[in-house]
Amino acid sequence: MKIYTGRGDEGMTDLRDMSRVSKTSARIEAYGTVDEANALVGTARPTGYGDVDEWLGAIQNHLHVVQADFANPDPDEDDPQVRADHVDQLESWIDEATAELDPLQSFILPGGSEAGATLHHARAVSRRAERRAVALAADESVNEEAIAYLNRLSDALFTFARLVNARDGVPEEAPSYE
Question: What CATH topology corresponds to 20-167?
Answer without folding.
Answer: Hypothetical Protein Ta1238; Chain: A; (1.20.1200)
